[in-house]
Design goal:
Elements lengths: L1 H14 L28 E16 L5 E20 L4 E16 L5 E6 L2 E11 L3 E11 L26 E13 L3 E13 L1 E7 L6 E5 L3 E13 L2 E12 L3 E4 L8 E4 L5 E15 L2 E12 L20 E10 L1
Antiparallel strand pairs: 1-2, 1-17, 2-3, 3-4, 3-5, 5-6, 6-7, 7-8, 8-11, 9-10, 10-13, 11-12, 12-15, 13-14, 15-16, 16-17
Length: 330
């Protein structure tokens, strides 16, 4: 009797499991290029991804690549969640873990593993047509609190650890668009503005000894485009490019007797970066996706300012980045 009860319970769970369709859910598009900017209503997606960048160069003030005696490795492992909140809105969040590692020629390897800055946001697609759609994205990047260097007294030559968080809050607003041609070719475009709010961070120390100082990394303009081709119903290949323009970095102090921050610009001025990417995605069914990506810098500005701290968001070192991930939807 107990065996019959166990079997009936297991079959009931399988029939009502997470990968079964619910009546309240929206229909999933049959291919990736037909997919909208948002997930179908009622769907939930859990993703696990990893990426790694190797670099043996940095960029000088003129933007030229210059080799250095050593290898820089920057890896991320993240968990991301997306939910089809409604027919027009998707909510998302991501938490990364970072491993930053420098292997100098003939020197001691310096490695740091810690949490990075988390992100939350929403994507909305209020305007749709037969083969196109338009919408917007609101994104918030919150500091993880891991922005305190292992050594603040001896300078960059005595770095004992790297930073995995910037200590800065980012608020981004992006306009999105998509178009599909003959159910085989899909184009997605994004244009956005990222406000990087000034804040007191652990890696800026005031000379007068009052405490930690202010950093204003300057705001960012970001353009993103991806072209996807549906090779097979379950297989898609994509190519894309990301261009970003960053404002002037400023440092400042504030303390007893001051009424406002006293900010001074850092050398280097504004900066701009251009990256190109390739991607491959395999979806055996609407519930599973395995994807691989590769990207490389094509143009850039000076990357030496925050290099000794390991802050890739502020000083992205040139190199090849490879990524792999899996997503489950139900």
């Amino acid at each position: 009797m107990w065996a019959l009860w166990l079997f009936s319970g297991w079959t009931g769970l399988a029939q009502a499991g997470p990968f079964t369709h619910k009546t309240t859910q929206g229909e999933a598009p049959p291919t990736q290029v037909q997919r909208g900017l948002v997930m179908p209503r009622g769907w939930l997606e859990l993703g696990l991804g990893a990426e790694r960048k190797n670099s043996e160069h940095h960029r000088t003030q003129s933007g030229a690549r210059q080799s250095h005696a050593g290898q820089w490795r920057y890896s991320q492992l993240w968990v991301e969640v997306r939910q089809g909140f409604s027919r027009r809105v998707t909510l998302y969040g991501a938490i990364p873990w970072v491993m930053a590692e420098l292997s100098p020629a003939g020197g001691t390897v310096t490695r740091t593993v810690a949490m990075g800055d988390a992100r939350v946001g929403l994507v909305a697609e209020p305007w749709t047509w037969d083969d196109a759609g338009a919408g917007f994205q609101l994104d918030l990047k919150a500091p993880s609190g891991v922005e305190w260097p292992g050594n603040v007294a001896s300078g960059p030559d005595q770095t004992s650890s790297f930073l995995t968080g910037t200590g800065i809050t980012n608020v981004g607003a992006h306009l999105l668009g998509r178009a599909t041609v003959a159910d085989r070719l899909g184009l997605r475009l994004s244009a956005g503005y990222v406000a990087k709010l000034p804040g007191v961070v652990g890696y800026v120390v005031q000379d007068d000894g009052f405490g930690n100082g202010w950093l204003d990394p300057g705001d960012e303009i970001r353009l993103d485009g991806v072209l996807t081709g549906q090779i097979l119903p379950s297989l898609a290949i994509s190519t894309g490019a990301i261009w970003s323009h960053r404002g002037v970095y400023e440092m400042g102090v504030s303390g007893p007797g001051t009424t406002k921050r006293r900010m001074s610009p850092l050398p280097g001025g504004t900066s701009a970066f251009l990256d190109g990417s390739l991607g491959l995605s395999y979806e055996p069914n609407p519930h599973w996706e395995v994807h691989a990506t590769g990207s490389r810098d094509l143009q850039g500005s000076d990357t030496r300012t925050f290099a000794h701290l390991g802050l890739e968001e502020f000083s992205p070192q040139p190199g090849l980045k490879l990524g792999l991930g899996v997503r489950a939807r139900w």
